[in-house]
UniProtKB/TrEMBL annotation:
Domain of life of the organism encoding this protein: Bacteria
Keywords tagged on the record: Cytoplasm, NAD, Oxidoreductase, Pyridoxine biosynthesis
Signal sequence annotation: none
GO molecular function, one term: 4-phosphoerythronate dehydrogenase activity
Organism from which the protein derives: Gracilimonas halophila
Domain called D-isomer specific 2-hydroxyacid dehydrogenase catalytic: residue spans: 34-282
Designated name of the protein: 4-phosphoerythronate dehydrogenase
Keyword Signal: no
């Protein structure tokens, strides 16, 4: 029988785990658990596995799956050299990220530029998440500049914009992995050198902390050449720089990819890869992706009010602000990520017809009546 150890916060893991396997759960806040006799380890981004955190790999361990798109918490060179198969859940949360970005843009526009078009948006990294962002932006008729030189190298149908073109955009949104090696490293991609002498209305980082140099970003915000910034991810998670967060238009605790649908996708994708790797019987899930109706009865809302009710971005923002001066903010940041119920993505939400007719943006987001 295959012995599986999984992060206790991998959503619905007990339901989706293949039958006839033995599943144990671990609490990731206590570090890497004892892996003796474990065949497969299922983690989230909070479990960092490398030569330092796991110097000795038990011979039984053959598979590590992560319920995330990002894999920078796993040292793939080290693990592959030790004969371990790595599996990610790329794409599981692309729609959730796109909705986070679009919601943030709509809220920001309503507050800062209600009478102007959004401007040109540069999407840096046009993989699963970046492509979903581009798709949603296009539905809103926003002009996009797609920047992804590595994709141009591997995909004959894709032409990347030039660096100059993307840096000339009004808004930048990041959807690249965090990498320090290779031909296109992303660590501190947006730095002093690229920010100097340019003007941006808004910068969004919902990729990984470290892709944007936070201190350089804050400096150019204070000087006025960056009008606003939105950060979902932080250089030293679960810690975060309070000063950088205080200046942000929106600051959230790494939840851009969190939704009911994304979290189910994540667990399903890793379980499917586990099944394929060990050639075992899959689980038969009873889970059904149903829609939810949100009642706005008798209350008069504007677009900002409706979006705030349907997407917890502002709620997370307020909760993160409450942590600014707390000495235990690292633990609370982690709790905030684990304890809130997952939101439903817009195509799984239904609201009153009058509201949909009054605010066309809601239909464009995929909400129905
Ligand atoms: N905040 C969140 O909740 C959240 C959710 C999902 C993903 N992420 C992060 O976003 C990243 C992207 O997610 P994805 O699912 O789209 O992954 P993906 O692998 O599908 O796409 C990443 C894209 O970035 C491109 N890229 C790599 N280096 C680049 C560079 N130097 N310049 C321009 N483009 C570059 C790649 O070619 C690829 O097309 C993940 O690695 C993860 O770290 C964060
Ligand atoms: O890389 C990803 O997919 C995202 O950052 C994802 O939201 C991470 O979720 P976690 O594993 O931290 O719960």
């Amino acid at each position: 029988m295959i012995h599986i150890l999984a992060d206790q916060n991998l959503y619905k893991i007990e339901e989706l785990i293949p039958p006839h396997t033995q599943l144990n759960l671990y609490d990731p806040s206590h570090g890497i658990p004892d892996l003796d006799d474990t065949d497969a380890l299922l983690v989230r981004t909070v479990t960092h596995i490398n030569e330092v955190t796991l110097p000795s790999i038990p011979p039984s361990l053959k598979f590590i799956g992560t319920g995330s798109s990002g894999t920078d918490h796993l040292d793939n060179e080290y693990l592959e050299q030790k004969g371990i198969t790595l599996a990610d859940a790329k794409g599981c949360n692309a729609r959730a990220v796109a909705e986070y970005v679009m919601t943030a843009l709509l809220l920001w526009k309503a507050e800062h530029k209600p009478d102007f078009p959004l401007g040109k948006v540069g999407v840096i990294g046009v993989g699963k998440a970046g492509s979903a962002v581009v798709e949603l932006l296009k539905e809103f008729e926003v002009e996009c500049v797609e920047y992804d030189p590595p994709r141009e190298d591997r995909d004959p149908d894709f032409n990347s914009a030039s660096l100059e073109e993307v840096l000339n955009c009004d808004i930048l949104t990041f959807h690249v992995p965090l990498t320090k090696k290779g031909a296109h490293p992303t660590y501190h991609w947006l730095n002093e050198e690229k920010l100097k002498g340019r003007k941006f209305k808004l910068i969004i980082n919902a990729a990984r902390g470290g892709v944007v140099d936070e201190l350089a970003l804050m400096k150019y915000f204070v000087e006025g050449s960056v009008e606003n910034y939105i950060l979902d991810v932080w250089e030293k998670e679960p810690d975060f720089n309070t000063k950088v967060a205080k200046h942000a238009y929106i600051a959230t605790p790494h939840i851009a990819g969190y939704s009911e649908q994304a979290k189910i996708n994540a667990t399903k994708i890793v379980c499917d890869k586990l099944v394929a790797h060990f050639d075992i019987e899959p689980a038969i899930s009873k889970y059904k992706n149903v829609s939810k109706t949100v009642d706005f009865a008798h209350i008069k809302y504007n677009l900002t009010g409706i979006l705030t009710r349907l997407h917890p971005i502002k709620g997370y923002e307020a909760a993160l602000r409450d942590l600014f001066d707390r000495p235990d903010k690292k633990v609370l940041f982690r709790n905030l990520r684990n304890e809130w119920p997952y939101r439903y993505e817009y195509p799984f939400l239904k609201i009153r017809t009058e509201l949909l007719n009054e605010y066309s943006e809601l239909k464009t987001l995929g909400i129905t009546d």
